[in-house]
User: Fold this.
Amino acid sequence: MIEFSDQIFVLLKHWLVSFLPVAWQQPVGVILCAATIVCLYPALFAVAVWLERKGLGRMQNRLGPNRVGPFGLLQPIADGIKSLTKEDIVPLSADAAVHFLAPVLLVVTVFMGFAVLPMGRNMVLVDMDAGLLFYFAMGTSSELAVFMAGWSSRNKYSLLGAMRAVAQMISYEVPLLMSSVTVVMITGSLSLTKIVEAQNHFSYGLPHWYIFTPWGFAGFVMYAISTTAETNRSPFDLPEGESELVAGYHTEYSGFKFALFFLGEYVAMFSISGLGTTLFLGGWSAPFAFLTWVPSWIWFFSKLMLSIFVFIWMRGTLPRLRQDQLMNFAWKFVLPMCLVNLMVAAVWRFMGEGWQRWAVCSAILLLTYVGMGLGEMRKKHIGPRSYRYAE
Amino acid sequence: MLGEGILKGMAETARNFFGSYFSSKRMTTVEYPEQRIAPFEAARVFPFLVYDGADWEAGLRCVSCQICEKECPPKCIFIEKSKDKKPDALGRPQFYPTRFDIDISVCMSCQICVEVCPFEAIKMDTEFELSTDDRFGGLLLDRRELAKSNEYYHTIHSSEAAAVDARLDEEKSKAEAKAKSLAEAKAHIIAAAHAGEGA
Assistant:
């Protein structure tokens, strides 16, 4: 029974394709899985938008949407209908072909990332040996889509937004990869299923997730920071800073093309949270040994939604950074921390079991963090502001 | 320590998030069309004209002096002065407005008209649900729409209205006393004159 509920989707797929001739079974199975992914994540997107609007409301001492359906649950549907019925405007001087292709490319590349994410035991579309590499290759191409959107719109705000987005995404791609590489160093594999398997065992009823190691924790924090920047979420939402750039690279998009950008942004958030879950939070493995009877896919999606909640929480808390702060933070703090973390992961790998490696690795990371923090803070003169008045 | 402020901020928003389910301090909004908060005493939206008594047209305090029209910064008031006079609250014959329009799409709620009015005839209203599907005619209020009773003024700004009433009563009694003393003096002079004639 436990086995059945855990594998319910896999068995369902096998049952469905068993009606077909053998030669067709493989391709139809893949199409079936892809269709499920393409339907599931937009549905999750609707839920996330509702959660975000309600959650942000609560954080700002208000209720959030509550007029459409019970608790405003039908709000995403209303929003969807609205964006579908809106006029689709292409600026006269825009490059129409590229303008059309940009949102499509964005959504396509974002969805490609899900191909290698294990969403449960045996629930992975393509079990690639270099899954992580494929994922990052796909994730990076979304930058191209963003730049296409900004460039083809022929609008200064769009272009500035796209420039910012590309600068930001490329800067944070480096720490993103660096923090993920530690996991590869310890696991010895680029395959995401193998990475999850390596974390899916327990001692004293507690799991061996990588976040519960010094290098894993530091790596996870750096990964979280980089993903926030990578998905253009607050406090790193400079590419669409309303106060400066109207809406950034999608200023000239309306109707369903805009909805596609919106969708792409959220689905990218899901996919990168899914990857973070896989790398550091044990993917689909249960958090305690006595909870292993709960189906693996429930664990994956609960961890995913928890990450989404943290994204929303950060958006409700932190104000937007300035461009120079953003760049300084990436190159002067996150990247050095990631490099130190790489070294720490190597130390961890070669010191062998025992408490010594815990002490050494934690000490190195903590000292670096505190030292770099002090260095950063010393340069800032935070204190009461002095004003100069005109005479 | 670096990141301390972020953690503090996150704790505060988390307190807001979970507190909003339990404490009214952390959930300050009300469901507007169904629930309403009583407007504050000092709330003001657009001006209205005060009238005394039951008949709005006869009781209008406005004497059409047109000071408010001249003082209005965005020039949203339009007044047409009457040719004839009619008695005001004190019984003195006064002009009255045959037209008094306020374009609330132009009005900026500065309250200057209220401050300059020597007759306590124009006051600020608290009515704010004025949306209309006719953006020209619907937002141009004439004197019928602007006229509101003194009782209504008492319900929206009670202490202010009481002070205004006290001032008007004082003026009225002063005027009466003056009229009385004037009449007495007149009577005295007449009596003296009669006495003189008699002698």
User: Anything to note?
Assistant: The interface with chain A takes residues 1-3, 6, 9-10, 12-14, 16-17, 20-21, 26-29, 31 of chain B (CB under 8 Å). DSSP finds seven helices and eight strands in chain B.
